Amino acid sequence: MMRDRLLTTLSTTAVFALVLMLGSCVTVPRIALHGASDSPDCVVLLHGLNRSWRAMEPMAEALREGGFSTANVDYSSRAGTIAELVPLSVDSGLQSCRQRGATRIHFVTHSIGGILLRYAYDDNPIPDLGRVVMLGPPNQGSEVVDIARNWPTARLFGGPAGLQLGTGEDSVPAQLGPVEFDLGVIAGTGTTNPLFSAMLPDADDGKVSVARTRVAGMDDFLIVNKSHFFMMSNRQVIDNTMAFLRTGAFIDSERSVEQLTRRETRDTEATKTTSLN
User: Which of 111, 133, 181, 238 could in theory staple to 48 by disulfide, Cβ–Cβ 3.0 to 4.6 A?
Assistant: First the structure.
């Protein structure tokens, strides 16, 4: 009886590993493109490591309801290095939006998706790039990669690109400069992964610490009590993402509150001045 259970477990593990390896061989991205005829704006959505387009679909659906065209890119995050993934993800999304006539292309990225966009932009600036929102991005790498890179399953689950997301000087994030486009970053603290969180020094989302999501040049920053795995479908994250794409500011960030307070003070003072006159 115990022998049968062991064989079943081993067989299941082998099948799962085979599925992962076959998935990593996919080199042709699949893109769910939805156009809004009355909008010149298009949003490219890039999912994170070991995820698919389905992870970003709640966000994409909300964006479409908000009047944006969307290109939800499904690429294999284990298909190669970051440099090799850029044509499958960033370039494919840009091409899809341009083909439907978009003149301004925004990005919403999760996890490694943000690094792919930064890498692509550093290599070749995107003239029609609009605003960008990054969800849980390892902009300064992640200590999880530093610790787990020597595990037997590290390459299987993270692929070549995942192993490039450490915190060392040779990591890809460490080699990228400050961002030169409109960027809002959303970091999470609602971890559901105690093992990985134990590897991280500060508040984190289970994969990336809050501190390491930050990057020089960003325009706004928001912390939500959500995990790395689920933040893309959270209503607060979705609402703030749409707000940034429209206005360049999150509705719940400290910066937005400060701007609103200054605006209200200015309007009040203007009203008093008008009354006196």
Answer: 111
Quote the tokens at residue 147.
């610790």
Asked if residue 147 belongs to a domain, the reply is yes
Which amino acid does the sequence have at 74?
D
End-to-end CA distance of the chain: 92
Instruction: Work out how many domains the chain is built from and give that number.
Output: 1
pLDDT digits (tens, 9 = 90+) for 159-197: 899 999 999 999 999 999 999 999 999 999 988 888 788
Q: Write a three-state SS string for 114-142.
A: HHHHHHHHHHCCCCCEEEEEEECCCCCCC
Structural domain span for residue 181: 25-276
Q: What is the pTM of this model?
A: 0.81
CA dihedral 222, 228, 229, 233 (to 10 degrees): 0
Whether residue 12 lies inside any domain: the answer is: no
- Nearest C-alpha neighbor of 114 from the set 176, 55, 58: 176
CA dihedral sign, ordered 120, 27, 140, 117: positive
Give the domain CATH number at 149: 3.40.50.1820
Contacts of 193 (CB under 8 A, 6+ apart): 206, 207, 227, 228, 229
- Residue 227 maps to a domain: yes
Residue 263 tokens read as 């605006």
- What is the C-alpha separation between 256 and 247, in angstroms, rounded? 10
- Comparing CA positions, the residue from 49, 131, 129 lying closest to residue 82 is 49
155 occurs within a structural domain: yes
| pLDDT single digits (tens) 209-253 | 999 999 999 999 999 999 999 999 999 999 999 999 999 999 998
Side chain identity at residue 100, one-letter code: R
DSSP-based three-state secondary structure for 193: coil
